[in-house]
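Q: I have 263 residues here and want to know how they pack in 3D. Can you give me a structure?
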Amino acid sequence: MVKRILAQAYLWVILFVLYLPIVIIFIYSFTEAKVLGNWTGFSTKLYTSLFSSGTHHSLMNALINTITIALLASCVATLLGSVTAIGIYNLKARSKKAIGFVNSIPILNGDIITGISLFLLFISLGISQGYLTVLLAHITFCTPYVVLSVLPRLKQMNPNIYEAALDLGATPMQALRKVIIPEIRPGMISGFMLSVTLSIDDFAVTVFTIGNQGLETLSTYIYADARKGGLTPELRPLSTIIFIVVLTLLIVINHRTGKAKNN
């Protein structure tokens, strides 16, 4: 009984520490104070200012760049990662273990090492840094996470259903589309969501591959803003909106996944 109470108390303390900063940002997004922690009364002025045309042009450009890069990189990474996972699943045990180890290296590797490696690669290939290099870099570090999300779904799948589909006259592409993809779809969705989150959150890889053409993402914008001695107050409502959108998507996806399992 005591162990269970302590375990629950420990869990609540961890959740409190993790979510307290988000709650603070949420609360202070409804005040006009420029300094976080200085409450000057309830107001939605920061939200209005955030979406006012021309007021924060560079911030909104950074947001658009971040979202487009995240979505494009996640779509490509989900496609590549799913195909790779299917390929790994069909390898022999020794080859599967070796490729799985190689796939884990980018995940275990430090972001700064990945960023420097990609920076040197682009320089050696003569690729000018900008939107394309950031997109390629994000696809690179997101793909292994998709592989890890899809592989467990393949292992849970009945290996005979693909062969049964072929025996019933389906082509390999039809069997892939109508049998395998429905089985691994939850893993693909999880990998896509994880890729979006990782892409939006990334700084170390982005800063090494973004170049000096004036391109900015949210992470590089916030870093540059912080170096000036403070953060733009409109970042508080923007962070709140991003958190609510991501949380809503996760709730919807988990609800649909649970409903599908029950059916």
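Q: Anything worth noting?
A: The mean pLDDT is 85. The two ends are 36 Å apart (CA to CA).
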